[in-house]
Amino acid sequence: MPIVNYNHLYYFHVAAMERSVGAAAARLGVKQPTVSEQLRCLERELGVTLFERRSTGLTLSAAGRIAFDHTSVMFRAGDRMLHDLVRSTKEHRQTLRVGVSGAIARGTSSTFLKPLLGLDNTLLSVRLIECSELLRELRASTIDLVVCENTPPASEGSDFGTTMIKKTRLVAVAAPTLSVDDDWNDALLLQYGRGAHVRSVIEGFLRDRKLTPRLVAEIDDAVFLVEMAALGKHLAIVPESVARTAIGANRVRVLEVIDLDFTGVYATYRATTSNELVRTAIRVMVEAHRPGRA
């Protein structure tokens, strides 16, 4: 049984979060060769390869993902210990770690995050990455709450709880110059990936309306979908809130509006969470976006 050096584990944990030796070194306040050597030592101790090292950065291997799940629990427990110790002697601000999907972040994130800035004695920490990655970090307890345009895939089981913050409409958009037949048979469709909740909503709409565009790309980034549609050859179906700026600037026009009760922006959290701050944050966001308030 190998003896694990906890300092090596911490360097690994930071490198896994930063996905770069250089970024990890900057965060740790050490030189890059120090981080690289610590990671190599840990891999020798464990007898596994933890990262796939590429020119674009670090990617966790299968063994690395298992290790990261454990280190996330370990260092999260350490953070909680420090929190409880400090709180017992003086006033201490709680940190609320919120992950926001890229589409919302580049579209309307301020409207969803603004209510959280008013939470008493709370430091708001925000991560801006894609939904699938956010859910992985939520499972590993490295963030507390996810704000995303999708609900978790059914394959995630009962690990997550989800609350709709605000109902949103979907809109089919295309460049003002693009001509589309009534049945969309001549249209080239840009679509969300198959793991996205909104994908099934869009497919149901197309099926019900007997619309038959040709699928040419799957992209889990609503802002990118809008930008591609604005170039003139494709149509995309995205949340209205994400497309609003492009519509207002006449860069795209609205072909159809899909107004359904189960499309919106969602707050997702660990179903077993006992964190009252998370529950308070969700309650505040929902209240701020009630009809007539937002």
Strand order of the largest sheet: 4-3-5-12-6
Poorly predicted ranges: none
Count of extended strands: 12
Provide the succession of SSEs.
Answer: HHHEEHEHHEHEEEEHEHEHEEH
Provide the number of structural domains.
3
| Beta fraction | 15-25%
Measure the end-to-end span.
Answer: 57 Å
Report what the structure shows:
There is one protein chain. The protein starts with 5 loop residues before the first helix and ends in a 6-residue tail after the last helix. β1 and β2 form a beta hairpin. The longest helix has 26 residues, at 62-87. It folds into 3 domains: 6-67, Winged helix-like DNA-binding domain superfamily/Winged helix DNA-binding domain (Arc Repressor Mutant, subunit A), CATH 1.10.10.10; 93-153 and 266-288, Periplasmic binding protein-like II (D-Maltodextrin-Binding Protein, domain 2); 170-258, D-Maltodextrin-Binding Protein, domain 2 (3-Layer(aba) Sandwich), CATH 3.40.190. It has a 5-stranded mixed β-sheet, sandwiched between helices. It has a 5-stranded mixed β-sheet with strand order 9-8-10-7-11, sandwiched between helices. Strands 1-2 form a two-stranded antiparallel ribbon. The protein is an alpha/beta fold and 294 residues long. It is globular, with a radius of gyration of 22 Å. It has 11 helices and 12 strands.
